Structure formats: C-alpha cells, structure tokens
Amino acid sequence: MARTAMARETICALRREIARIEGTLPEPLAMPGGQGSDVLRHGGMAARRAAAAGVLETGVARFDAALGGGVPLAALIEIHGRQTRDAGAAAGFALALAALVRKEESGRRRPLLWIGGRDLFREAGNPYAPGLERLFGVEADAFLFCAARHLADALWAAEEAARVDELCAVILEVRGNPARLDLTATRRLHRRAQEAGRPVLLLREWALAEPTAAPLRLEVGAAPAAPRATLAAPLEGTIGHPAFAVAIGKSRAGLQESFVVEWNPDALSLREVRPARARAVVPASGHRPHPAQAGGAVVALRRASVPSAPGGQPPREGRSAHRRPRRTG
Amino acid sequence: MHPSLAIVEADPQADRRLLEEIAEWCDRYTPLVALDGADGLFLDITGCAHLFGGEQAMMRDILSRLLSQGFDARAGLASCPGAAWAVARFSGPAIVPPGAERQALAPLPLSALRIDARARAGLQGVGLHTVGAILDAPRAPLVRRFGAGLVRRLDQALGQAEEAICPRRPAPPLSVERQLAEPIMQVEEIEALSHRLALTLRQELERRGEGADALQLSLFRVDGAVHRLVVRTARPVRDPAAIRRLFREKLAATGEELDTGYGFELVRLSVLEASPFAIVQTDLAGESREAEAALALFADRLAARLGETALRRPVPVESHVPERAVRMVPFAAGQQKKPAQGPAGGERPIRLFARPEPVDVVAAEVPEGPPLRFRWRRATYHVARAEGPERLAPEWWREMEDAPERDYFRIEDAEGRRFWLFRQGLYGAVAEAPRWFMHGIFA
C-alpha cells in the first residue's frame, strides 16, 4: 500500500513537472491530499500567451464540455481522417475550425494557409477555392496554398508560417505516418503555435494514432447529411449541410466521446446532430470499428509506422514467436 | 607524325562552353561581357578600369590570371571594339590611346580589319597588303569595287563608325561587390557577407528611392567557376536583414549543389530589377502595414527555399467549367483584378482532382440518372442519395465542336461520404456508352 502511494506521489510529481514545462491546464486527476497539490506555474512567455489565447468555443455544448471549455487556440491540433477517401470530411472539419477562428476575429480577415505535399494533393484532390469560399465563407483571395515536394519542406514551411502574425491559421496536411513527423517535429510545431497564440491544424490522412506532442487529437469521419430544410419540412432525398462524425481520440480532459456535428455554411457555425433526429447515424462507421474506440485500440507508445490497409485489414502482428511468454515446466 | 603527339578530335561545342565559362569569369571585371566568334571576348570596361588600378594594370591582371589558369590569352585595349580586336590579334598586348588608331593599325595586315576573304584576296591581288595601304586610298573606288562592307569595317576600326557589342546578360542597375583577401568557404560567412553588401546597397537604394524586386548574389570561386543565386521578392525590399534571410533560404535550398571548392574570392550582390519603394507612414495602430510586409517576406522566403511556384493563391476566372473556374498564381504575381462573379452554379466540392478519375458505374436506375453503385479506386460505393444532374456544357469557343456535355451529380454513399461525379456525354448521342468520372470530394 505504501509502495503504491509512493508511486502515485512520484507520478504526480512528474506530472506537475511536465505541466510546468508545457504550461498546460491542471490535470483532472485526483491528487493525493496535503501539501504539493498546488501546481506552481512559471512557464515562459509562450505559456502565458497560450493561456491568454484561451479556447475556441465551437458552439457544440457537449463537445466543448468534453474538451474542458473548447478547442485550445494556441496549440497543435491533430485531425485524423482514417482513409484517403475521407479527405473531404477531415479537411472539411479542419476548415470549419479555421473558419470559426476567422469568424471570431471579425474585421481583420487574415488569410489562411494550407500546406500539403504535392503527391498528397494529387491523391486526395487539390483544394478547390470556389467550393471552399461557398462553404466556409473564406474569400478566394484569403487562401494561400503551399504544395511542397518533400515532407521536410512542408514541416519547415509550417513552422515558419506559424510565426507569421498575418495568418489566421495554418493547416498542414500529411499522409500516413512518416518517420519524420515524430514527437520532436510535432513538439516544435506545438511550441510555435503556443508562442503565436494561433492554432496549427495538423490534418492527417490515412494515419494511425501515434504519440505526438499535440494536446488534442480528433478523429473525423464522414456522416450522412441531414436532408435540406424547407419551410414546410425537410426535403427527403436531398443532401443538406455537411455533417461530420467527430471522435475525441486524445485530449487534456481525457474523455473519449464521439459526436456527430453539422456545419452550417450560412451562419458559419457548428451544431450537434442528435442521433434521434438524424437519419442513419449508426452506420456512419460501417464495417470498421467505431472511431471512439480506435484511439484506445492503439498500443500506447508504440510507433505505428505501418498504417492499416484501406481495406480495413489489421496491421501484421509484430510480435514474433520467441517473444511470447515461454511455458516452462 | 611525332609519336608522342596526342590527337584529339575537335569539339566545337566544348570549346564554346569553355569560352562561356571564361566569359562568366570575366564578369568580375565588368558586367558587359560579349562573346566574339569562337575564340574571343569583348569586355566593355568603360568606367571599370580605375577599380583595378588603371588600364595597364587591369590588362596585366586579366592576362596573368588567365595564364595561371592555363590559358594563353592576348589582349588589346582601344576606344572602339574594331581597333581593340585588331590590336589584340595582331600586335600582342597593347593599349591604343584614343586618336592613335591610325598609327596603330597602319602596319597590320588586312585580316585585322575583319573583312571577308574575297575582298581581302581582291586587295592583295592589286598589291595592297596592309591596312595602311588603304587607309588613305580614295573611298569611292573602294566601295565600287569591294562593296560597302570594307569601308564600314575600316570606319569601325578607326572608331569613326558606331559599333555595339552584345553583352551576354543585361547590366544590373546596381551592384555591390567585395574582393576577399582570404577566400571564404562557409555558408554562414557568405550569409554574413550578403548582409554587409546589402547594407551598402541600402544607402544607394534609399538615395534612388527604390527597392529591389530581384537580387542576385554572384560567387566567384578561386578556380574561376561562378555561382549565381537569384531571389525574387513579392514587394520591393531594401532591408539588409530581410535580404540576408532570403539568401539564407536560397543557400539552404541549394545545399549540396553549391560546391565551395577552395572558396570564393569575390562576392557580388546585384539588383537585377528595382522598382519605386513606397514609404508609407504607419497609422497610429501601426499594425496592418507591418503585418502585410511580414507576410510578403514569408512568401519570399518560401519562394527562395521551395521554388517560385510553391506558394500560390487562387484567382477566380470567368468560366463555368470547374477546372477552369480558378487559376493558381504564384503569390509574388501580386493582386489582380477580380473578375465579375460568374453565374451562380450549384454546390462545389472543397477538393477537386487535377484530372477527373474514371469510375465504373455498375448499376444505375435509369440511364440518365445517378448511379446506384460504382467502383472508384477499386472500392465499391453504394449510393444512398444523389442530387443532380447539373449539366455543364463545354466552352464551344475553346473546345472541339463535338465535345460532350457533362452531367454532374452530387452523391452521398452509404457511409456518408459525399462525392462529385459526372457522366460525360449522353446515352444515344454516341455509339459507346458514356463514361463516368470522379471529379471532387465534398466536405
């Protein structure tokens, strides 16, 4: 019993140390009572600016509550799309967040930068300004696109862009789980976002969850849209406002929940679609596991370098025979 | 033949390349270097000689440096290209003072006049072998007999007729350079030097009220090779720190390709293009201008490192064909006039494939309607709902007359993904069944 208490004490001390370094919100974990339960924070300028930047309230009450107030503004935010064909949904949700950020700072109208690899844009489609303009209220001349040849170039561009005050948000789109996008690279991006007080949205297509420095990971899939609303009644058979199935894969608050949200392009706002009201929300994830469980399915701290095939086949079992517990007797 | 004689076949192209390399190297003396035939170079040193200690010293410097590189060169210096050409080829290193062309040219053979072989043979046939023999001859019979070319060449050699040389590259409006006693090899040193050169450049740019739109850093290596790095900017710059940062990205992008060898002994920073630099007083808030400049600098650095076309912005175009409705222009191209908004079309996807991808439609309810099932990238999709068609006719003023129409459908599959499909052509209009394509993805 005493050993457990000691271990808890050590873990809490380490957590406090990490929180101090990162300048984060208090952990929602029970602290052992007594002295030392207050976390003394004297993080640098970055932490103070990050705290001042606050959170972005998405307008979906349950989602905001699960994130502890809203999406952090000064942070690296990972948005995962499971497959390349989900690129529309994942990019759509990332842009919805960016559009909300832009809506908040009414008047300044800063441009939005979208960085991606050339091959990725070829595979998942180039950003199309007329559609983006209509859906997210961002004028065509407020968009900047950067197609980098290599991931190293894209990362460099994203880091530099995170420092430019004239951009309202930076979207970095990456495909798969490249080795270069590791803990160090994401930490650099996160620090830049903290210093700038603006989000860097790391949009990942066809990627497995892996340890990164991003405090928030959202897994976004497609969800059937509600029919178009008319004055009389919803018009059956039509495709209305876009909807996304969003699951919290990792967050400070540690709650793993999933939501179906709908983006309203006219009001530029998100709202939750209750399963009872929406049509056929249940098969949103089809034959594959529900996104909510996916975050937990990944073995912690093991580098997920082999993404699963698009067909939904599980990655090859990495454990070889000789590593199994040997039976002696 | 002598047994130890090595015989190498003539390679005029390699000779040409070598001559161009030497011309590149001569750039250190003057920006106006022109090629002359297969074996000569013209250097217009007007206003440059004093930088090298006078004409005599300059010529000696050029010749000795070329000799140390293994070239046996001859030089002549005169106030007009014709006389310099003649002196360089026929009387060794010599300087012809202005006005002394006649005396210098008189003893030279007729070949020194750059005249064609027929005229020369004709003159020699009548016993005229030197330039001096025809200098004072009456002009009219010469023109009648040998054409106007001979007299023109004569006038050019004497400096009585204008002759222009064609420099290989335009002379930059502004250049700053530094000769280094000790060659530099480190990239950091080059960066630091570009900063110092830019400091000097700024004074001159300020005096002119201009900023640089394109800058070139020329690095002259000890062994004669020349590297040139060019950066372009979205708006005129003159800030040395900004210029240094641009060249840092350029040097980082060049990376291994920049072979420093034994180091660079001369570094020159040139302004290739300049435009008026608008000095704007910031408002009391003092933000917007600086922020805009910061964005422009970011774009320039991105362009220097990733290429001119890395950062682009969409510009709407008046066209209803989806792939033509927007054009991506490099950021540096600047703000352009916004075209009037075209007719409001239907919903547009947020991602558009560069080329529409073929789709196999397995089943459709009615031929003209949306598909029920289709295969795209080897996966089958079941269509849950569809909107459409939105028929887009081809632009007849661009395409062939019988280009097929496209019927666009907005489709949602059973899992909620929304796609933009189109059918090219109509059933019955052509012999084979119309084909389907995937063109975009909706949010």
Describe this protein's structure.
Chain A: It comes from Chelativorans intermedius. Chain A: Residues 281-329 are annotated as: Disordered. Chain A: InterPro entries: ImuA, P-loop_NTPase. The complex is a heterodimer of chains A (329) and B (443). Chain A is an alpha/beta fold and 329 residues long. Helix content of chain A is 31%, strand content 19%. Chain A has 9 helices and 12 strands. Chain A has helices spanning 2-22, 45-53, 61-66, 87-104, 118-124, 129-136, 151-163, 183-196, 291-297; strands at residues 55-56, 71-72, 76-81, 112-117, 126-127, 143-148, 169-175, 200-205, 216-223, 243-250, 258-264, 269-272. In chain A, the strands form 2 sheets. Chain A has a 9-stranded mixed sheet with strand order 6-4-7-8-3-9-10-11-12, sandwiched between helices. In chain A, strands 1-2 form a two-stranded antiparallel ribbon. In chain A, strand 7 (169-175), helix 8 and strand 8 form a beta-alpha-beta unit. The radius of gyration of chain A is 21 Å and the shape is globular. Mean pLDDT of chain A is 78; it is low at 28-43, 276-286 and 291-321. Chain B has 443 residues and is α+β, with helices and mostly antiparallel strands. Chain B folds into 3 domains: 28-158, no CATH class; 175-295, Dna Ligase, domain 1, CATH 3.30.1490; 351-441, no CATH class. Chain B is built from 11 helices and 16 strands. In chain B, the strands form 5 sheets. In chain B, strands 11-12-13-14-15-16 form a 6-stranded antiparallel barrel. In chain B, strands 5-8-6-7 form a 4-stranded antiparallel sheet, with helices on both faces. Chain B has a two-stranded antiparallel sheet with strand order 1-2. Chain B starts with 11 loop residues before the first helix and ends with a strand. The relative contact order of chain B is 0.07. Chains A and B meet through helix 4, helix 5, strand 5, helix 6 and strand 6 of A and helix 11, strand 9, strand 11 and strand 13 of B.
